[in-house]
């Protein structure tokens, strides 16, 4: 199995709730054998997004669903998988209290959030040893933390590569329950992450183009304008040249002429777009709904198709 991380998402739509359930079951089965096939429910639109390491990988997964599992569904346009992460350590507190008729709901947690190395994943650690939070509620706190991470902090993208440590909290003798601590864990994660210098990351890839020799200068200039770096140019026969470049995937998804993507290289911080006086460090929310059907296009957090 390729060790590259999933860098693309494909929205898939089913006509009925029964088909959606079968579709999600099929994805779970596929994901047990192929860990790069992740399933994500878009927090804004409710779309089911499946991940892949390349366009061919997405096509192969989709065909398995329609042909092998015989589930009727349609796909939208592939999108770049952006993720979020944190760059600093911070603490956050989550307190959920709701009084309804009869017994109330009470949960209170304090988290310490630290960056993990890139690609190390998300860890949850409990330092509770004195019973301030009963053992049966610790798993609920972790569930709330991981669910909140799925929705992200800045642009609705998944928050990755962090360690969340539960170091304090409190409970109520009669009003505490798992649901209250799950909500409290979610609130604590959001508060801590918002103070931990969160950023949006984008995948960087190496690509190869073959273009007419007379178009070489224009091609190089265009790639540079798209934040690309041309690393090698060599003659390819009498009338064409071969270009190698390193470039953000979002800049060449749907690009004409179609490049050959050689390899995933790294995640890098997506530069903020200065809108002229606004907050340049917080991207706009990610799009809700499929991209226009004109060509394969990236889902850019700076765009909103609603």
How would you explain this protein's 3D organization?
26% of the residues lie in helices and 32% in strands. It is α+β, with helices and mostly antiparallel strands and 306 residues long. The strands form 3 sheets. Strands 1, 2, 3, 4 and 5 form a 5-stranded antiparallel sheet that branches. A hairpin with a 6-residue loop joins strand 2 (39-41) and strand 3. The longest helix is centred in the first third of the chain and has 17 residues, at 17-33. Residues 274-306 have low confidence and may be disordered.
Please report the first level of CATH classification, the CATH class of the largest domain. Answer: Alpha Beta
Distance between the termini: 37 Å
Radius of gyration: 22 Å
Q: Return the average pLDDT rounded to an integer.
A: 87
Number of strands: 14
Number of domains: 3
Alpha-beta content class: alpha+beta
Strand proportion: 25-35%
CATH H-level name of the largest domain... which superfamily?
Elongation Factor G (Translational Gtpase), domain 3
Tertiary shape? elongated
> How would you sum up the major sheet?
5 strands, antiparallel
> What level of helicity do the residues show?
25-40%
Instruction: List the secondary-structure elements in sequence, H or E.
Output: EHEEHEEEEEEHEHEHEEHE
Number of helices: 6
CATH topology tier name of the largest domain: Alpha-Beta Plaits
CATH architecture of the largest domain: 2-Layer Sandwich
Provide the low-confidence segments as ranges. 274-306
């Amino acid at each position: 199995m390729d060790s590259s991380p999933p860098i693309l998402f494909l929205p898939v739509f089913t006509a009925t709730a029964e088909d959606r359930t079968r579709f999600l079951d099929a994805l779970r089965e596929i994901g047990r054998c192929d860990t790069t096939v992740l399933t994500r429910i878009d927090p804004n639109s409710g779309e089911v997004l499946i991940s892949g390491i390349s366009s061919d990988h997405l096509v192969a997964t989709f065909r398995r669903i329609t042909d092998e599992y015989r589930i009727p569904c349609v796909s939208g346009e592939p999108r770049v998988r952006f993720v979020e992460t944190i760059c600093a350590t911070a603490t956050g507190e989550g307190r959920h209290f709701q009084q309804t008729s009869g017994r109330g709901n009470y949960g209170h947690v304090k988290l310490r959030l630290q960056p993990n190395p890139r690609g190390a994943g998300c860890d949850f650690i409990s330092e509770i040893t004195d019973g301030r939070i009963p053992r049966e509620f610790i798993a609920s706190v972790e569930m709330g933390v991981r669910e909140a991470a799925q929705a992200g902090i800045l642009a609705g993208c998944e928050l990755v590569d962090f360690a969340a440590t539960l170091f304090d909290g409190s409970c109520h003798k009669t009003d505490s329950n798992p649901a209250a601590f799950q909500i409290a864990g979610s609130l604590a994660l959001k508060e801590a992450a918002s103070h931990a210098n969160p950023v949006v990351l984008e995948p960087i890839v190496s690509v190869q183009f073959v273009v007419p020799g007379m178009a070489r200068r224009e091609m190089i200039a265009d790639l540079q304008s798209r934040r690309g770096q041309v690393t090698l140019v060599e003659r390819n026969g009498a009338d064409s040249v071969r270009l190698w470049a390193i470039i953000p995937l979002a800049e060449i998804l749907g690009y004409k002429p179609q490049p050959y993507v050689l390899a995933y290289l790294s995640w890098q911080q997506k530069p903020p777009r200065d809108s002229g006086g606004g907050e340049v460090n917080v991207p706009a929310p990610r799009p809700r709904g499929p991209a226009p059907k004109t060509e394969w296009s990236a889902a850019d957090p700076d765009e909103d198709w609603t």
